[in-house]
Give the backbone structure.
Amino acid sequence: MKINENFLKIESSYLFSTVARKQREYQQAHPEADVIRLSIGDVTKPLAPVVIDAMHKAVDEMADEKTFRGYPPEYGYDFILDAILKHDYLDRGIELEKDEIFLSDGAKSDCGNIGDIFSVDNKIAVCDPVYPVYVDTNVMAGRSGDKNENGLWSNIIYMPCTAENHFTPDIPDEIPDVIYLCFPNNPTGAVATKQQLKKWVDFAVEHHSLILFDSAYEAFIVEDDIPKSIYEIDGAEKCAIEFRSFSKTAGFTGMRCGYTVVPKKLVFNGTSLNPLWARRQATKFNGVSYITQRAAEAVYTPEGQKQIKEILSYYQKNARVIYDGLKQAGFECYGGVNSPYVWLKTPDGYTSWEFFDELLEKCQVVGTPGSGFGPSGEGYFRLTSFGNAEKTVEAIERIKAAYKK
């Protein structure tokens, strides 16, 4: 038996596992410390009441032989697919068909699994810094090449996102087969305007490249010129797959539900990607539970929309507290407006992990080192607004007390 040796190329521990381990070790050494975690993007508010009600009703149905449900349809029940299609697309003037939407257990899974339908010979391009799953899953699949002394994989095209280009990537000189884009961006909080996304769509159509568009944070967009879907851009249906998540939109991090849109017009080498993804999902995935799908459906009701907007407002206020407080403390920071994340520059002379350690020691606050998202993330740090409001205020007051000049 031979193993997939590509797994030996990646770090043995996922970024957020390392953060959690370091926090755990500190807590064990300092049991009296009140450590505040603003690191992982995990929600803390309970599910909306309308969602809970829908789940209770669905559980009761599962307890009655007349209404019991077994295996769900492979790509989702019609009731949730119809709700997604109407609310997220048709009502926004985007023409899609129901069988172009595939319900899943989350955007993270789909972002990683989508590579199953691509050849290992494809060359990918990623923003740098970037959500680690994009890179790690391609390393696992054998697309990465080898890592050089600068921490870059030889067969991956890196698109640096820095303060100089406002953390939005420039079109690369080398033509990639697959382009990963995430807006609002994780980790930087940056967004792309319709004009900026149009350049990417035009580029992909011209060069027969595929865009993988991660739109997990679209619910945080508040500015008018920022598209919530890449399909708001003409031509995107011919070059883009979109990933969506209920995790951040409706607090489903513990529930697991998302969906991926694969338009039938995505044709490469004479083959539509839509039936390939349909076949992959039917073979390797048994569908989202009925209870969870009813919960997701409730999000789209008028009351559901009202309730989740109230929850989103809670996190948006946290983001503003973090951003304003860091600025008052003298930090250079970004994001926090159309995003739940604030991206800050570490103090001069500090690496990302050195600042992580100092922030934990001096303030008992946990964040995420920027270098964990890629080489261009070195010297930066991410804080999340998904924490408790009172704890978020306390964390920022501690940081201001420690660093304000």
Q: What stands out?
A: The CA atoms of residues 86 and 92 lie 8 Å apart. The chain has a mean pLDDT of 95. The chain is about 40% helix and 15% strand. The longest strand covers residues 240-245.
